[in-house]
Amino acid sequence: MSSGSESELEGEGETAPETTVEGEEAAKESAETDADGTTTNADSSSHCATPDSDGEVAEEIAIVTFERKLPTAEKIQSELADRYESIALLEYHGDVFEEHWGEYDCFIGLMASGIAMRKTAHLLDDKWDDPAICVVDEELTWAIPITGGHHGANQVAQDLATMGAVPAMTTASEAAGKQGVESRAKAMDTHVVNGDSTVKTNLAVLDDDLGPVARLDGPRAVLVGDDVTVLKRNEEDGIVLGTGSVSGASKEAFLAAWEDALDQTAYGFDDVEFVGTATRKEDEEGLLAAARELDLGIVVFDKETLLAHEGPTPSKSKELIGWPGVSEASAIAGGAEQELVLEKVSYENEVTVAIGR
């Protein structure tokens, strides 16, 4: 089948009627559809390559490119190779997306957005199963998630940003500069069990009304409503960096404290599931910046949870403000086994760290 030239494809009337939706309806639309424009596909057997694709990182991606753009595609493949399990190169033809639908977690379309949209619209079925799509221009100026922003496309756009592209993310939480539920799940190495709930919980993120991630230990059955998102760990053998600090501690202090603590164990940063801390520390700029630099999620625990998981090292904060020592309690509360690997250590009287599992 003849693929046609890119200029011919780009001239097929890509202009769509402009629609403006404001306020909560816009946020709801973004949370519900992820800008997917989902249509029903008669054959719904195709799905993402990653078994639990809801909220997880994209691992297997493919770059779809015209022959003349192959050097740019190869450059992307080389630059991003160490971030993904595999990156395939597919030469564009009219049915290339349909032929490979379900084989990859995300497609990078090195082409006009209109081409990618028209060639995949009839394939879209369910945002939790469909592969994500991100388009980028040949000059690597813009990286635009088209579908599956929270399911790999935003992640790919952010990775392309390291090559100079501007990530044009339109999912409501990211556009507002906030971390959506799916992004939190990814950062914590968990996945979303009940995907439909993220409509309401992402709206709560926009309103700063979601609250901390709560932990429930079993064996236990749990009944939740449609406004509660359930996250399940992908691994059970990671560690948690329980962290406390004085107000205003720097990013460098947190990074150095974590490294110093890990050096006292057999673990490294690759073993860390997430950083645990207290709700009263969730806005510490240095903490947020340090976690962001290492691509680690932060889980905050309220006072009641930390009191229930108090560590062995006495803390003055309990006498002064009624809170237990944050580092040990959050390390215990966050760990799968709820035990300490390393008791509290202090770095430069700025940051305290304990390690749990």
Automatic annotation (TrEMBL):
Pfam families listed in its UniProt record: CbiG_C (PF01890), CbiG_N (PF11760)
Polar residues bias: start-end ranges: 36-48
Name recorded for this polypeptide: Cobalamin biosynthesis protein CbiG
Residues in CobE/GbiG C-terminal domain copies: 239-355
Biological process (GO), any one: cobalamin biosynthetic process
Domain of life: Archaea
PANTHER family: COBALT-PRECORRIN-5A HYDROLASE
Region listing for Disordered, in residue ranges: 1-55
Start and end residues of each Cobalamin synthesis G N-terminal domain: 96-174
